[in-house]
Amino acid sequence: MTNTTAEFIIDGKSYTLPIIEGSEGDRGIDINGLLQQTGCITLDPGFKNTGSCTSSITYLDGNKGILRYRGYAIEDLAEKCQFVEVAYLLLHGKLPNESELEHFRGLLERFALLHEDMLHFFDHFPPNASPMSILSVMVNALHNYYPEMSDDPLENIDITAARLISKIRTIAAFSYKKSVGHPLVYPRNDLSYCGNFLNMMFDKPVRPYTVRPEVVAALNKLLILHADHEQNCSTATVRMVGSAGVNLYASISAGINALWGPLHGGANEAVLDMLETIYADDCNFEKYITKAKDRDDPFRLSGFGHRVYRTFDPRGTIIKTACHEILEVLEVSDPLLDLAQKLEEIALNDEYFISRNLYPNVDFYSGIIYRAIGIPSNMFTVMFALGRLPGWISQWKEMREDTTTKIGRPRQVYIGEPARDFVSLDQRS
Ligand code: SDX
């Protein structure tokens, strides 16, 4: 890290703060000493200008549309890896060799089942319960079945990570089966991570499901593309909750709740709702583009825009290509794909979107693939969580291993009432 500094003046007094530089040239003013030196804090709602940590896990350049996990380009990982390999990479900082990968796969097989007592939970959710709500509850409840996490959380983090990555897949599939009133399909150790999930989702006693390699490949790619994305809202939530010393299950459950939001991971489901609304409205693109541009209208183009990317989200570009590939293989023609492309074309030629650097993000096309596979839209954000889980765990582990970590506790600038005398009830007007 370089030794350049930031010089500034407050009330005529000059101050100097160090600037640290990351391995890819990104720089941050280290304000650790700001309050003590100046009596001032910074104010940055939404943290647009504020870094919460240093990290070695994911690097992204929003101007160039670059995304790398542990230094590897997302394009390479999405094309050449299995999701399980990428999960290992994020957790351990290196791609696994044959024996490491086999060992990790063995842990995922070992932990695929849920404790049978946990199945009763599913009987008490209402039929239309949100799968994200179920996921958050069940992940939180896992702590009660595997309490060893609360001893030395880092001692068995590899076991706990594999347990979570395996069981979240079973919980997701079981919640779907319960929602459609079908018998649960248990995990099978002869299937891959993604193949097992698909089989648990779609196999039925009356008609066995055929796990197609092309569908497994598409799901692998989607989970890899969602696996981490530096300090996004849900990851920052996992770090924040974990910084209080709470166990990994509770921290991940909090991250699932943050991801649920339509401004974040919930956008993939919101995109499908938006496309279906526009489709049902005679594809009246202009009407919805106008609504999206109207500050007084809460409607936004879901799947468009990003806090960091000021160009195409590289994940969205890969997913758009994968969309065409999987729909061709499955011989599915989805009018919503054509509609999405038309919407993208109109928006990318509209000054409002151009001037604000609004491009399709990871959520714009992903739902089209999930839909083609047969996954219902209320499960789209659950799919995002399945992909993001290794990233959340890796970030939590990095935070807990960092000896400088302190409990997250932001400050504020108070703008309320000045001190005033108490007024008893009988004196209040
Ligand atoms: C994810 O952070 C991550 O890395 C997240 C994520 C990950 O992998 O973890 O990448 C996953 O969450 C992707 C984003 C999914 N969300 C959506 O698709 C929802 C739609 N997008 C927007 O709500 C918005 O773009 C955000 C929330 C994604 C980003 O919002 P910012 O950074 O707070 O920017 P902003 O709301 O201040 O917007 C700046 C301007 C505003 O207009 P003006 O005030 O300048 O006139 O752009 C406009 C906004 O109104 N704008 C949009 C828009 N997004 C921003 N206008 C219309 N449609 C949109 N989608």
Describe this protein with a few key phrases.
mainly alpha, Rubrerythrin, domain 2, Citrate Synthase, domain 1, Cytochrome p450-Terp, domain 2, three-stranded antiparallel sheet, 7% strand, globular, binds s-citryldethia Coenzyme A
Q: Can you walk through the features of this model?
A:
This protein is mainly α and about 425 residues long. The chain folds into 3 domains: about 1-50, Rubrerythrin, domain 2, CATH 2.20.28; about 75-260, Orthogonal Bundle (Citrate Synthase, domain 1), CATH 1.10.580; about 265-370, Cytochrome P450-Terp, domain 2 (Cytochrome p450-Terp, domain 2, Orthogonal Bundle), CATH 1.10.230. The chain is about 50% helix and about 5% strand. It is built from 18 helices and 6 strands. The protein has a 3-stranded antiparallel beta sheet. A hairpin with a 5-residue loop joins strand 2 and strand 3. Helix 6 packs across helix 7 (about 155-180), helix 7 runs antiparallel to helix 18 and helix 10 (about 235-240) runs antiparallel to helix 11. The radius of gyration is 24 Å and the shape is globular. The protein starts with a strand and ends in a 28-residue tail after the last helix. About 40% of the residues are buried. The structure holds s-citryldethia Coenzyme A.
